[in-house]
Amino acid sequence: MSDLSDEILLCILRHVPVCDLVRNVSNVCHKLHTLCRDKTLLTNVSLSEEYLADDLLVRHILKRLANHVQSLSLNGCYWLAGSTMELLARCRGVTHLDVTGCRLTSLRLSRLLSSLSLLRSLAFDVTPGFSSAQLSSEAVDSLSRLSELRQTLLTPSYGVVPCCAQLRKLMLQFDISDVTREGIGVCCQLMMGQSSVPHYQQLEEFTARLAPGEVNQTLLLLYLAVFSVHVPKRLRVFLVSIPGPNPAHWPAAPSLAQSLGQRGDLEALQLPRSWLDSLSLKRALEGNSPKHLSFSRCPALWPQVFQSLLEGGVRDATQLTSLNLSGINKVLYSECRSVEDQLVPATMSRLAAGCSNVKQLNLMHTHYHHESSPGLGGETHLCASLAKLAHLRLLTLPACALSDGLNTHQITTNHTSPSPLFLGLKKPPRLGIQNYKPDSESSLSGDSTSGLALLLAGCPFLETLEVIGPGFVSALPRLEPCTRASVEPRGMCVWARGVGDAHLAALAALTELRRLTLAGLPGVLRGTGLVQLTRQCKDLQVLSLANMGSLKTMNYSPALLDTLKQCTQLRELRLEQPYLNASASFFEALSCCSRLQRLCLISRGGAFDPSAVETFVERCRHVVMCHMFTGGTLVACRTLQKVLLDRSVPVWISQAELLEVLARSRCVAYSNRAPASSLR
Question: Is 309 helix (H, G, I), strand (E, B) or coil?
Answer without folding.
Answer: helix
